[in-house]
Every structure is written in C-alpha cells, then in structure tokens.
Amino acid sequence: MPERITLYTAKICAYAQRVEIALAEAKAHFNRYEVDLLNKPEWYPVKVNPANKVPAMAYGGPDVPPDQPSPESEKLAESAVLVEFVADLFPESGLLPKDPVRRAKARFFVEIASSKFLPAWWGSIVGKGPIEDFYNALEHLQSLLPPQGFAVGDFSIADIAVMSFLARTRVTLLNDVRKFSKDEGEKIWATITSGKFARIGKYMDDLFARESFKATFDEAYVTEALRNMFEMWRSQGKV
C-alpha cells in the first residue's frame, strides 16, 4: 500500500496540475498544499524543494502538517517524474500501459510534448514568438494521435503531459489574456480546433471532458491568475 503523500502545488501552474490529474486518476488519498508562487514560504526550498518550484511531493514519513514537512519523508520533484511515480505507485490506474510498445509510445509522446510542443507553447502563447511556431508544433503533436481516442488509445501519462497546457491555451485565447485581443484569440482557437486541426480539436474535447481534469482545473481562478501574472510580467519587461 502506498505511503502518505503530500503534494505541494499551485492552481495556476500547468506543471503542477499534471500531478493532480495523475493522483485523481489513481483515486489516491493525499494532502494538498497550495503554494503562493509570489510569496513562497521560507521553509519550502529548505525542507521540500531546493529548486523552489512546484510541483513537489513529500512521500512517506510521519503524519505531520504540510507546512511542517518531516525530514523522514522522501522529497520528490519535477512534474513528469512525479506523474510516472504516481503511475508506479498505483498500477491499477492504467496511467502506464502494460503493453511495452504502448508504454514506449506513451513515453515518446511525453518526450515530444517536452521537447517540441512546450517550447513552442511558451514562445507563441506566453511569449512574443509567431503563432505559426505553435501551429507547427501542434501539427506535429496531432500527427502522433491515433484516429480516435487518447494519445496511445486509453488515457495515460501521454495525455497528462499536454492537457493542462492545452487548457491554458484555451483560457488565454478566449479570455483576452496576454497579447491576443478577444477577436484574435477566438480566430486562433477556431483554427486549432477545426479544419486540418479537427483531430486535435476532438482530442482536446475528450481531454477536457475527463473527470480528473474537471476536478483539478478552476477555470475562473486560472483565468484571473494568468491575467494578473501576464500584467506583472509586462510591467517588468519580461514579455
């Protein structure tokens, strides 16, 4: 039986939501601690994650309050690592396919998401890069999808790798957040959900209908938090 789990997370963070989705899919019992990314506790980098980022996890050890993490618990970090850790802890969740070929394909999809899709997402949706870079990355991702269903058939770590970022794409484009006006955002969203992107449009519908996604995504909170974050970055000359 898995030991005690404490997840250090933040609603705004797409990487952290990955782990929350995995835990929800596994129906795992865990303690959730919301980290204020603009005012992180002094004890957090010292006792939990020296990189001072979320997500992070304390695994095992005695039953203590999340803000008093025990040195006896194992401290783990990085979203992709934590998602696979959850999959290993809860094999009945099916997050890692049993078939070795499908398992390899799931990991390959995660690699493409990390090396191709996310840099384009950060550049085009968050940063100042051309939207064409995002279209190209999305087309690459779409080419890996089967005709229907999830990335490797059944829901897996592959889908978790991208769904929280696709959700924030929708929020950014449809709510006048960041650099896109409402009209521009709606036009881009229509482009990436129809026509030559119809397959990935259906894929996103399937992802967003997943109960684990709905249970871990506070759209109103994320929309406002992203708007505030981008405004702060703009005032600092970061975007």
Provide an overview of this structure.
The chain contains ten helices and four strands. It has helices at 14-25, 43-47, 79-89, 100-126, 131-143, 157-174, 182-191, 198-208, 211-216, 219-235; strands spanning 5-9, 31-34, 56-59, 74-77. Strands 2-1-3-4 form a four-stranded mixed sheet, with helices on one face. α6 runs antiparallel to α7 (182-191). The relative contact order is 0.12. The mean pLDDT is 95.
Side by side, the strands of the main sheet go 2-1-3-4
Largest sheet: 4 strands, mixed
Helix fraction by DSSP (H/I, runs of at least 4): 40-55%
Query: Shape from CA axes?
Result: globular
Provide the gyration radius in Å: 18 Å
Low-confidence stretches: none
Q: How far is it from the N-terminal to the C-terminal residue, by CA? A: 46 Å
Q: Give the overall average pLDDT.
A: 95
Structural class: alpha+beta
Counting DSSP E segments of at least 2 residues, the number of strands comes to: 4
- Strand proportion, as a percent range, falls in 5-15%
The total of helices stands at 10
| H and E string | EHEHEEHHHHHHHH
What is the quaternary state of this protein? single chain
Topology:
Layout: E1 5-9, H1 14-25, E2 31-34, H2 43-47, E3 56-59, E4 74-77, H3 79-89, H4 100-126, H5 131-143, H6 157-174, H7 182-191, H8 198-208, H9 211-216, H10 219-235
Parallel strand pairs: 1-2
Antiparallel strand pairs: 1-3, 3-4
Helix pairs in contact: 1-3, 1-6, 4-5, 4-6, 6-7
